[in-house]
């Protein structure tokens, strides 16, 4: 059996789930469901990133130990993914015992293979806790983090270094040959351009931070949170015998970690690199950057309340080409829901079911072939284009009803019309299944055996 192993980033446990996390995770779920449907052993990994200075600080504020604190909040993401029908194979936490062991084994190997310096180097830099990273001068405005508006911590301590520079040529070859398939293509070119400027060794441990995984070869240090987090993909993949990952789905802000640092770490222990790293774009809400200060953050619960689970999955993925930046507004999402789901799909199913019920029509032919055009688009992660294909079929069938006017037909002719239509409907439902799992299941059930009309699939939003 072929396998397909996809991952979302693991989300920072003290972040509040928002439309950005939701978008990535739904996309990863759709692609995994698709591969499952066409017969692969497909797995999806998602989870929570629970170490680092930010969490240590937040726990202190709540008068809790970091472990108690993350135990309290780590289910928040999990609950929202369950609500959104995300069919993850495991929800990994970086505080899970097996992960900690794998991280330590991984770093020990890096150390033994001379990919990590034998001794720490003195590091001086400016650390932004909000970013959980060292800031370059360009990322600061008047000495303050441009994004978090906080002053970074002046920081001088001994750190262990990963010799990233050793892997420069190897990475350039792997990425330019698409052996590590970095997409979209513009992102690949960006990454290649940056490699050519030269890779510098990076700090991978902290001596002053307790809330992290101890380095196996020097337990006065903890593993830098980003390094610990990246290894989560390997923890699950290795345990299940499905490494390398077929797809790391990430936001473009963390592409560098996933396309450079992570593959280099794997190369350093002679492991296979991921097959594809795909970075999707960012979005704005009504043309504005999403921010707590502006108060325009869209939470997944709000979307589910308004559009339902399948409706949310649809309006997000159909909105703009995957990989590009895009803009959302409630008006846009409402329009898309009403036009495509309530009027388009919902109406079509209702019309045909009604006609079928009138003459006690029975579906006898049930094909299970996935539309090759939709399949091709999904393999390229072109979600919105795949949906466009499906909606062309919906529109074509709608048009046919208007032309044929089946309500005027004699029973024999009507039955023939219904046979053809129900084959098409089942095929549409099969293509929709990775996107709208519950709705597709409802349609497939409705159009097997005797067809009955049912309640409206997507009541209009006013
Ligand atoms: Zn910052």
Radius of gyration: 25 Å
The CATH superfamily title of the largest domain = HUPs
| Name of the CATH first level of the largest domain | Alpha Beta
- The averaged pLDDT comes out at 94
Based on the structure, what is the oligomeric state of the protein chains? single chain
Largest sheet: 6 strands, parallel
State the CATH topology of the largest domain.
Answer: Rossmann fold
Total count of strands: 21
Overall 3D geometry?
elongated
Any overview of this molecule?
- With 462 residues, the chain is an alpha/beta fold.
- The chain has 2 domains: 3-120 and 160-281, HUPs (Rossmann fold, 3-Layer(aba) Sandwich), CATH 3.40.50; 330-450, Isoleucyl-tRNA Synthetase, Domain 1, CATH 1.10.730.10.
- It is 48% helix and 18% strand.
- The chain is built from 16 helices and 21 strands.
- The protein has helices spanning 19-37, 53-61, 66-73, 75-83, 97-112, 168-176, 185-196, 225-230, 232-239, 255-268, 300-318, 330-358, 372-379, 383-404, 411-432, 437-446, and strands spanning 3-12, 41-49, 90-93, 121-128, 133-134, 140-141, 144-145, 153-159, 161-162, 181-183, 202-203, 205-206, 214-215, 218-223, 247-251, 276-280, 283-285, 288-289, 326-328, 362-363, 449-450.
- The strands form 7 sheets. The protein has a 6-stranded parallel β-sheet with strand order 3-2-1-15-16-10, with helices on both faces. Strands 5-4-8 form a 3-stranded antiparallel β-sheet, with no helix packed on it.
- Helix 12 (330-358) crosses helix 14 (383-404) and helix 12 (330-358) packs antiparallel against helix 15.
- The protein binds zinc ion (ZN).
- The site of zinc ion has 6 residues, from loops.
């Amino acid at each position: 059996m072929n396998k397909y192993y996809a991952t979302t980033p693991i989300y920072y446990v003290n972040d509040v789930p928002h439309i950005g996390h939701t978008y990535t995770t739904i996309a990863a779920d759709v692609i995994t469901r698709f591969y499952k449907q066409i017969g692969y052993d497909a797995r999806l990994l998602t989870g929570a990133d629970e170490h680092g200075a930010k969490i240590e600080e937040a726990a202190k504020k709540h008068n809790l130990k970091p472990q108690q604190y993350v135990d309290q909040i780590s289910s928040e993401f999990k609950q929202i993914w369950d609500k959104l029908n995300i069919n993850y194979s495991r929800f990994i936490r970086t505080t899970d015992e097996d992960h900690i062991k794998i991280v330590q084994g991984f770093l020990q190997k890096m150390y033994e293979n001379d990919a990590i310096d034998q001794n720490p180097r003195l590091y001086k830099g400016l650390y932004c806790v909000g970013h959980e990273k060292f800031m370059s001068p360009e990322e600061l405005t008047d000495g303050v983090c441009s994004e978090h508006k906080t002053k970074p911590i002046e920081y001088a301590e001994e750190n262990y270094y990963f010799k990233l520079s050793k892997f420069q040529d190897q990475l350039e070859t792997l990425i330019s040959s698409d052996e590590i398939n970095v997409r979209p293509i513009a992102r690949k070119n960006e990454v290649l351009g940056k490699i050519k400027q030269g890779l510098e060794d990076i700090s991978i441990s902290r001596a002053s931070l307790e809330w992290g995984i101890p380095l196996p070869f020097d337990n006065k240090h903890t593993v830098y949170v980003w390094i610990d987090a990246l290894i989560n993909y390997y923890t699950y993949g290795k345990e299940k015998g499905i490494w390398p990952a077929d797809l790391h789905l990430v936001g473009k802000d963390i592409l560098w970690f996933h396309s450079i640092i992570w593959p280099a770490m794997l190369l350093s222990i002679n492991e296979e690199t991921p097959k594809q790293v795909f970075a999707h774009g960012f979005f704005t809400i009504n043309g504005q950057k999403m921010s707590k200060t502006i108060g325009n953050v869209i939470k997944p619960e709000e979307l589910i309340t308004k559009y339902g689970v399948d409706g949310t999955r649809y309006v997000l993925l159909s909105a703009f080409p995957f990989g590009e930046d895009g803009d959302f507004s409630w008006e846009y999402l409402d329009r898309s829901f009403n036009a495509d789901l309530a009027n388009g799909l919902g109406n079509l199913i209702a019309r045909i079911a009604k006609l079928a019920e009138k003459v006690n029509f029975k579906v006898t032919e049930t094909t299970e072939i996935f539309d090759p055009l939709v399949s091709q688009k999904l393999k390229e992660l072109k979600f919105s284009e795949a949906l466009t294909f499906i909606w062309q079929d919906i529109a074509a069938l709608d048009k046919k009803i208007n032309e044929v006017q089946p309500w005027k037909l004699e029973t024999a002719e009507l039955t023939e019309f219904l046979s053809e239509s129900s084959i098409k409907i089942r095929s549409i439902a099969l293509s929709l299944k990775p996107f709208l799992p519950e709705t597709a299941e409802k349609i497939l059930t409705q159009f097997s055996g005797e067809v009955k009309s049912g309640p409206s699939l997507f009541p209009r939003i006013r």
